[in-house]
Amino acid sequence: MEQKRVLVVDDERDLCDILLFNLRAAGYQAEAAYSAEEVLPLRIADYDLLLLDVMMPGMSGFELAKHLKEDEKTRPIPIIFLTAKDTESDMLHGFSLGADDYVTKPFSVREVMARVKAVLNRSKSMIDEPTVYEGLVINVANKTVYIDGDPIALTRTEYELLLLLMEHRGQVFTRQQLLDKVWRQDVIVTERTVDVNIARLRKKLDRYAACLVSRTGYGYSFKETTNK
Length: 228
What we know:
By secondary structure, this protein is α/β, with parallel strands linked by helices. The chain is built from eight helices and twelve strands. It has helices spanning 13-25, 36-39, 61-69, 88-96, 109-125, 156-167, 175-182, 191-204; strands at 5-9, 29-33, 49-53, 79-83, 101-104, 131-133, 136-139, 144-147, 150-152, 173-174, 212-215, 219-222. Helix 6 crosses helix 8 (191-204) and helix 7 packs across helix 8 (191-204). The model has no long low-confidence stretch (mean pLDDT 86).
């Protein structure tokens, strides 16, 4: 089986060494760059995943991610941000740039490895065909969502919820099923968390909010309605 290539981009060399050791021990082909500027000349399209620090001297991780997502060749590459910037606005900004996950420092190496595995598994099973309902389009290749051609900013969780429900239209998922399928296993959340995220997602879906149907005593489903 071909080894997955992971590029670690962080100006903290000791941290890079630790991540490289563990990634290679797990069977990945791992390399490091110590600034965003070092990344630009590389053949980024050859990598399967980037672990990208946000706060670096010179070009930031956010700026590099934006640059990569604007290039058709590098747009599909999954990105996990590694950063001490842990406010909600920072995280939302990271996800709006197309990030697949967001790990705040300090973190455990075990946590990072679990997220690397999860993101690569999602990337492996990903198909290029968009998921579409009328003017609501999910471009699964670059994890973006559009309404009538205009992009809407979703968090990773909101995106995963919408994709799951749209791909299984009419199927009712219990809150526990949604927790099992969307949330990471190492995160402790309650069923109320599902309700909060569905409510936020509805607000962003505009006229398609009514498609996210709540079935009292059961859970949620995506129901096709007339929105034309």
